[in-house]
Amino acid sequence: MKKSLRERLAVLSDAAKYDASCASSGTSKRDSSKSGGLGSTEGSGICHAYAPDGRCISLLKILMTNFCIYDCAYCINRSSSNVERARFTPDEVVWLTLEFYRRNYIEGLFLSSGIIRDSDYTMEQMVRIARDLRLKHNFRGYIHLKTIPEASAKLIEEAGLFADRLSINVELPTDAGVEKFAPQKHPANIRRSMGALKIKIDELSEPTHTRRRKRFVPAGQSTQMIIGAEPTSDATILKSSAGLYSNYSLRRVYYSAFSPIPDASKILPLIKPPLVREHRLYQADWLYRFYGFGMDEITAGKPDGMLELNIDPKLSWALSNRDRFPVDINRADKEMLLRVPGFGVKTVMSILMARKHRRLGLDDLGRLKVSIKKVKAFIEAAGWTPVSLIDRGDLRDMFAPPPEQLVLL
Amino acid sequence: MVETEHVAQSPPSASQARAQPPPSREREFTVPPAFLTLAEAVICHSDPARFDLAYRLLWRLQTEKHLLGDVSDPDIVRAHALQKSVGRDSHKMKAFVRFKELPQTGERRRFIAWFEPEHFIVARVAPFFQRRFTDMDWIIATPKGSAVWDGETLRTSDEAAEKPEIVDDTDDLWRTYFAHIFNPARLKVKMMQSEMPKKYWKNLPEVDLIPDLIRDAEQRVRDMAEREASNTAPKFHAALQKRR
């Protein structure tokens, strides 16, 4: 018997939850006040709900189908899995997106799919959904399409006209990992697709004199890699990310802690997802993108190439570079202020502004909502010099929570 | 920045403040544009002292031209705190308003939402909904005022509205989605609650699923671990293998 729409929604959202991204930010600003249609994107994304896993629900994140001809070991939808299968028609996906949007449950659609028949057939159906939303229904909300790497360039280009973001998953941090666990996927093809997309984005963002620029993937491309399914070190993972950011101008690299799935493959460990490790990788990624750190600096001095789990990578860096501290908050430049553990980008901007008016002391920092306890060993301020604090042997213990062992399931 | 903008002789806050009246009428009254942005947010706050604060800032700005840049001044700190709280409430309104469909009477579809904001933000946030839900008629009703859009005019009122009792079947599909996008192996309840504070829960159709999702999570993960991977793959897998 054919499954109801609701039953299929259950199967196809179950199948989509291992994709980490749910971002709806960073696209072009637009709304429906002139078109009289439906939808807007106004810069920052909106999380319309949070699941008990603490993840933001911003988009309707579903698979068009979870039938798949590939057999990737880490994937719930691999062809050898006995997971329940279902498929939406393009019209059903369009309907669900619009009805969910009208009730203000979501910012838009994140559509992915198992590969059925062949790459082009699958991609064509996905593009049709995006095209119908935009052209038939005048929809101006957010659309993220997961691109099939083997699909033809023409289809990917068409997808880019309708989607805010396109992504192609590199799947695992190393080529060897992909070859081993995703035998039908080829790292070279994935890179070629990402490269072609980058070139197209660059080309279409060149200003022209004669006509308006075409809107093409305004929120750029992103990717995801699974962490902890095979024994790659954090240093290797972060190095691989740095390469992705610089070679393909990716907006984001998502790290997805390998998570137990129903009917899991026997060749992979059934572990509790390494959530703390995933969190530390995101923090490192953040330091690289917004705080001026090099990826190699972050993992330098870690003999096994692994980030510390019990303290964050910024504090860890500061503790192994104590000669760079204390930092005088009334005189240091922005670059060095950004390296103080406990200062965020906003705090640093506030300090730079406030210190034009007076010499700042610890109480001024308190009013900027900085945790004095966290920062005082690393800074000098009006009326405050940490004297010997920075040289104390037990400085680390003042920050680190007692270690906890990650358990096997 | 010393760019200034003229404001009306008696700012809205003046009548309610207990401070002294502004200086003589001949004197030109100026504030930096950033003050208007700040004051517009501050006066939406539910703190009864908000007008006093806004007025005090207005007064001090006449002699302390760079006051707004002094981000560790106690009045500025307080004003920023109110602004931030209003900003957060506004953001949560954009996120947590849930429209329910009413029977269609004319050409346009009609929706209504009941929301309970912490501050007086309905008029402030309503234009966002107008820009987004342009092709449908809607009402957002709250105990602190309401907003109505009919495709041509956006009207707002400060009067307390009554909670409507409406059922929308699509809520069930949304609840199905919410339950299935959750990964039980990644339970992080505190994180969820800090972003989706309980004060907003009562009008969200999905939240009554949360206790069960949390309770069953551990068992579901254990079941996944204990169940052996099946030894037989589905038929189509075998067919696919042959094709290669």
Automatic annotation (TrEMBL), chain A:
Annotated InterPro entries = Aldolase_TIM, DNA_rSAM_put, Endo/Exo/Phosphatase_dom_1, rSAM, rSAM_sf, RuvA_2-like
Entry coiled-coil feature ranges: none
A family per Pfam? Radical_SAM
Named cofactor requirement(s): [4Fe-4S] cluster
Q: Which keywords does this chain's UniProt record carry?
A: Iron, Iron-sulfur, Metal-binding, S-adenosyl-L-methionine
Any stretches that span the bilayer, and where are they? none
Q: Which SUPFAM superfamilies match?
A: Radical SAM enzymes, RuvA domain 2-like
- PANTHER family, per this entry? ENDONUCLEASE/EXONUCLEASE/PHOSPHATASE FAMILY DOMAIN-CONTAINING PROTEIN 1 (PTHR21180), TYPE II SECRETION SYSTEM PROTEIN K (PTHR21180:SF9)
The protein depicted here goes by the name DNA modification/repair radical SAM protein
Gene source species: Asticcacaulis aquaticus
